[in-house]
Known about the structure:
Chain A is α/β, with parallel strands linked by helices. Chain A is about 65% helix and about 10% strand.
Amino acid sequence: MNELIIALVGQPNVGKSMLINSIADARLKVGNFSGVTVEKAEVRFMTQNRSIKIVDLPGTYSLNDYTQDERVTKDFLENEHYDLIINVVDATNLERNLYLTTQLLELDKKMIVALNMMDEAHKEGISIDHEQLSSILGVPCIKVSAATKRGIGKLLNRAIDVSLFPFEKSKLIYSDVVEEEVEKLSFFLKQKRYKTELAYRDLVLKLLQNDPKVYQKMHDEPIWIELSPLLKEALEHLYLHHETKDVSEVFAEERAAFAKGAVTETVTCKKSISKNVTEKIDALLIHKFFGIPIFIFLMWGLFQLTFTLGSIPMDWIDAFFSAFGNYAKTILGEGELGSLVADGAISGVGAVVMFLPNIVILFFGIALLETTGYMARVAFLLDGFFHRFGLHGKSFIPLVTGFGCSVPAYMSARTLKNDKDRLITLFIIGFMSCGAKLPVYVLFAGAFFAGNNAGNVLFLIYLAGAFIGLIAAKFLKLFVFKGVDEPFVMEMPKYRLPSLKLIWHTVVTKAIMYLKKAGTFILGASMLVWFASNYPKYPSIEESFSQKIEMASSDEEKTMLTNEKAQLLLEKSFLGMLGKSTDVLFQPIGFDWKMTVALESGLAAKEVVVSTLGVLYALGSDVDEGNEGLISELQKQISFASSVSFIIFVMFYLPCMAASVVFMKESGSYKYLVYLFVFTTVIAWGLAFIGYRIALLV
Amino acid sequence: MITLSEMNAGETAVVIRIEADGELKQRLFSLGLRKGSHLKIKATSIAKSTMEIEVESTLLALRFEEAKHIAVQRA
Lengths: 698, 75
């Protein structure tokens, strides 16, 4: 027998993901819907000798095509092959949920309604006559609870049952006014013996709802001449009755009335507790004055956790991979193979794995915020500020994460459901200076500003970056991602205790996705950088230096010679050549070729900037931002104006390679990466130029 | 008749008409806000840019900009 394909459909916050998790246990597979960054969860398994595939469609309040989630769901339901819909509804909020159900019923597919969260409904004193509801809707309704795993076996059994029997039409009955018009028009079609694949009732309903496809088809039929005036008359009746000229409003009211009717007949509610809990929590968390400080405190906690706690395993990972690299070198020798494996491959993999602790902790926090319902409150609190800059209240989290690391920041932008909001946010995340840029700032601020001022300069750098970022967002909104704003109408879900299993699942999925997708790219790219900075080889130079080093009398001289060798080799490598040949582009902003090379190596990772400067000033690659030798060397060779220009450029140019790859993935197209490159480079260059010229005058 | 944006926290109202089109209108419908809905303003944000309202048993957040499109009558 064929595989039974089930589409899981429901409004947001009805516990759909928890349900599919309960069904799937560990067998859940997560990917993307093709071409969009909308998560697609699937599970395949066998039960009662049937192989079953369940596809979890993005939550949607109705079958429109305004947001990406809505489009994906609608597209799937209308165009893909599937056998059965399981419509998951929140039993504690049945009336609103049935609105979507009425739309699903008109798809004419086999369907089951899963009344989820029954445990919660019981606690709230809500009882639902599911048999009565089944007969009103004309499809089976099953009580389940994803949280306590009750009713799930029954749901699956029923799904298999339904799939075995022939399709039975559901009974969505509209008000008398609509039904009368449907009757009239159907009668006309019947008299005319009009031949159609659709039932007359369905055809008429589609015409009344202005379905473009059906219209187009009917328009070419001879019957249209007679049908059209009748249709117009019918619509006029509906308009008159509903006091509106908008047919979508007429049917929205009809659906709502049907849902209300169904709820009145099947639901009895004794008391309401949980609502009061939400009310009480909201009174504090979205309080006019305390709301924002509480949020900032929570965020502060999350970031402390992410970057302080995260730095511990990061150090281990770093130590592990450098030890592993050294070990590889002892086995493979210091030669080319050893260098390729240790400096290229192993350190490349290390750079990928390095971000993992940050990602895991941060996404644990974000999943917690989302599943408890707090994220919607965050948007509510901050939207006023961010909306002025063309952003969304939810942009806050990715942007602040950007101060730590751009990689998880880009990934967390997925909480933004609107394409434009998400893209604008993605484009400016890089302006929030990430942790890896700090050493560069510290080095230059320390070298060129008085000690007591360096701290202020650092603070100013961060603040200016964020400020320019917001301005850039406004610019993008006004000139690039133009168009009407998505309306900000958002459900504030009830506060719920998070399901640890679901959070765990989210975190693991994110981690695996990152390792798989970003990992391969980052690995390849870091090999490329390794190659560019190590090739071509100059055996004669190496030879002459080795001789000199052997001849050297003191250790000091040896180190000096080794460093000089490294400098010369880097200067003559592909990276050095690139820096020298592109230096002309950076002369107007006061860079010499060494600064250019350091800057370009920073495209690989910002951590590399300082060590490259170390090599180029012949101090070896083991320098850090506090290195006295490097500081005095910079003071000697670089003017104050050039250093200002360098800091400004680093603030705004493209984030590291790992981040760029993740950006490309999250924005959905390599095209956007090109735009990002141009956008950031133009801003960085322009502002560096202004900064340079001003600093020259000072 | 006034618009929802002119109301304050704690007040209740009935929706008279939704003067919006397309996306906003459909979004409001599917979230349960339509002509005749009873609603209560639960909270407004500090700069009066967003408000939280309760419709039936659903809590919604919307901008004051959007609230301007909703004609209501105090109840």
